[in-house]
Amino acid sequence: MTTRIAVLGATGYTALELLKILARHPDADVRIATSRQTDQGSVQDVHPALKNSMDVPLTQLDVASIGSEVDFVFSCLPHAASANTICALIDAGVKVVDFSADYRLSDVSVYEKWYDVEHPDGERLGNVPYGLPELYRNEICDANLVANPGCYPTSAILALAPLLQKGIVSPQDIIINSTSGVSGAGRTTNTAFQFCEANENVKAYGVGSHRHTPEISQYCSSAAGEPCDVLFTPHLVPMHRGILSTCYVRPVGGASSGDALLTLQTAYQDERFVRVVNHSVETKNVANTNYCDLAVYDSGERLVVVSAIDNLIKGAAGAAVQNFNLMCGYHETTALL
């Protein structure tokens, strides 16, 4: 039996990747796609890559009709706007994967500090599963609402969580430097992400203030069982897609890169989409896939854990479909391999 689906905010880069995956999913029936600009026609008019594979009209968001016409919603709406909509959808019995940050954090005050907006559904925070199946599969399977992780947090948390959980590395003095392609900013008119500005240029941004910092810290702390001290700095690099995260951590009890590698291999040995490798980790090896590649190196008094993902797929749309499969009882890898 197919699942009737709505995609809210269907015109961005992440939505395109999501619709591509759903177009080949044997049990996905996309019935509704919304946009604030309904003069754009259908999803294939906005995303020509979908021509002959999906032709769903773009409509204005109407929560009442969505709640009665579909079984599942992927919400690609901005933070705050997403939670406002999701409350009504959950009440209507619809299952939801939310791409925004609205349900990722467990503390309302932390959310409101970092996102500078009052949370419209604060009572639900702390009770929504975090959509990393490799770490929270059981909770996801039983959920009606899942918070899809941020792209940077996915790359960092998958790299660090098993090491923190097993006490291989210290929860203190964690440094994470991440580089991301321009698509991470979404479809935007912001001058900083235009070709002439981004090409042949690398820059750090959001230094000390990036909104993914508390998300990384929260789930690393959960893995460690104590608060983690995380310094996270993202960088924009002139490529279309991909994230490479380099995590600098202090080993505990003389642990070596070999110990850390074995810990990661053991943790992810049954995980289809995490590959622990003994070669160079590169974004080109994960581009257009739902894989996360991990490697570990010795570096003086630190260990260096390197991870690579496609920010639009494992960092967004692919993870969302992984969660969809689990929530609806389909095989987790459906349409992702």
| Chain-averaged pLDDT | 94
Biggest beta-sheet profile: 7 strands, mixed
Radius of gyration: 19 Å
Strand content: 15-25%
User: How many runs of DSSP E, i.e. beta strands?
Assistant: 13
Number of helices: 11
- Reported by name, the CATH topology of the largest domain is Dihydrodipicolinate Reductase, domain 2
Q: Superfamily at the CATH H level of the largest domain?
A: Dihydrodipicolinate Reductase, domain 2
Residue share in helices?
25-40%
CATH top-level class of the largest domain: Alpha Beta
Shape: globular
Backbone structural class: alpha/beta
Q: For the largest sheet, list the strands in their spatial order.
A: 8-9-7-10-13-12-11
Order of helices and strands: EHEHEHEHEHHEHEHEHEEHEEEH
Terminus-to-terminus distance:
21 Å
What is the subunit organization of this protein? single chain
Spans where pLDDT lies below 50 across 5 or more residues: none
CATH architecture of the largest domain: 2-Layer Sandwich
Count of folded domains: 2
Topology:
Blueprint (H helix, E strand, L loop, with lengths): L2 E6 L4 H11 L4 E7 L8 H4 L11 E2 L3 H7 L2 E4 L5 H11 L3 E4 L9 H8 L17 H9 L3 E3 L3 H15 L8 E7 L14 H4 L4 E2 L8 H12 L5 E7 L6 E7 L7 H11 L6 E3 L15 E8 L2 E8 L3 H16 L9
Parallel strand pairs: 1-2, 1-4, 2-3, 4-5, 5-6, 7-9, 11-12
Antiparallel strand pairs: 7-10, 8-9, 10-13, 12-13
Helix pairs in contact: 1-11, 3-4, 6-11, 7-9
